[in-house]
Amino acid sequence: MEDPYRWYESLRERTPVLCVDDDLWLISRYEDVAAAGRDAERFSSWFGNDRGRRHVDALPSIDPPEHTRIRRAVAAPFLPRATTGYEDVVERVVERACARLGGTRRRIDAIRSFAGVVPVEVLAAVLDMEARSLAAAADSAGPYKWSLFARALQTGSGEVLSGLRAAVAAGGVAEREAVSFLVLLLTAAVETTRDLFGELLLLAARRPEVWEDLAAAPPDAAPAITEELLRWVSPLQAVYRTTTVAVEVAAAEIPAGASVMLLIGSANRDERHWLGADRLDLGRFADGRANDHLAFGFGPHHCLGAALARLQIAAVVRALPRDVAGFEIDGDVARRTSPMVRGVLTLPVRVRTES
């Protein structure tokens, strides 16, 4: 199926709030999803981001004020004004990866060869760690990730790791909280960006006209194009919250203690908020309209790595169409099956360098 998330459309039209069973509610329209996501007091993250209702001692499952304390202690290197210092690093990584892809003359898995490579190499440069170690950790279970970053926090020499170590020494954050943040950073920084790149390459193979439009776009259009890709793809499709009190949403009464799925992918294609919302329009944000999509989450849990991800996506939008004329699918495409994330697991292609 080209787009397995279209069921959100009919849900929005039929009912903006749906009770799936006694304990699970779905909220699908932009206005309601955005409001609930920003309301940490009534829509708690404490019970984690799955239906298992398990608290995980990690930033996404912690509510303010504890969440605010930890975030302030670790956020500085990833704020927009700080990530501008990574622009040269991102450009080098992306240029190198695009050139490698453009020089490929054989059948490859574009996820393994490109989409998953760029975010790992960028994060490795930002953390001053080996890309090979981060790539291995990204594909490994939690204990390996934890031990890798526990060692890095103790001995790492990069600015980010040194800053975290100083925050631990100053008492702003506990050591386990700093390590937990690094584990989260690996997952959030790599997986979301990889999934967007995968969708972009699949789009290029299935809709060559979109790739031609990207190639014809001026370099300064890349940031606006990035926002539209984020809105339309929405790698993070949904998040869970738990109501702390009874809440009325769109005339529906959701009881206290209910699990609520906030459907970000649906909200980002809500016709009530965007004209032609289900259509990819690379010029949608060219007029400077606020990029108020929800691809990076919302409220206190807005993605800390958003600025770094935007740098990478914009760099790929500028560079890749120069090196690659297009892609031809050469095998079976495998997608993620989770309702929480949208992404391509394997994308066998052959690269075209000439139109």
Descriptive terms for the model:
355 residues, alpha+beta, Cytochrome p450, five-stranded mixed β-sheet, 15 helices, 12 strands, 48% helix
Structural features, described:
The protein is an alpha+beta fold and about 350 residues long. It has a single domain, classed as Cytochrome P450 (Cytochrome p450, Orthogonal Bundle). It is built from 15 helices and twelve strands. The model has no long low-confidence stretch (mean pLDDT about 90).
In short:
This protein is of the alpha+beta class. Helix content is 48%, strand content 12%.
Topology (elements, then pairings):
Layout: H1 7-14, E1 17-19, E2 24-27, H2 30-38, E3 43-44, H3 66-74, H4 80-83, H5 87-102, E4 108-109, H6 110-115, H7 117-127, H8 131-138, H9 142-155, H10 159-169, H11 175-206, H12 208-216, H13 222-233, E5 238-243, E6 247-249, E7 252-254, E8 259-263, H14 264-267, H15 306-323, E9 326-329, E10 334-335, E11 344-346, E12 348-352
Parallel strand pairs: 2-8
Antiparallel strand pairs: 1-2, 3-5, 4-12, 5-8, 6-7, 9-12, 10-11
Helix pairs in contact: 5-7, 5-15, 7-11, 8-9, 9-10, 9-11, 11-12, 11-15, 12-15, 13-15
Low-confidence stretches: none
- Tally of individual domains: 1
Provide mean pLDDT, rounded.
89
CATH superfamily: Cytochrome P450
CATH architecture: Orthogonal Bundle
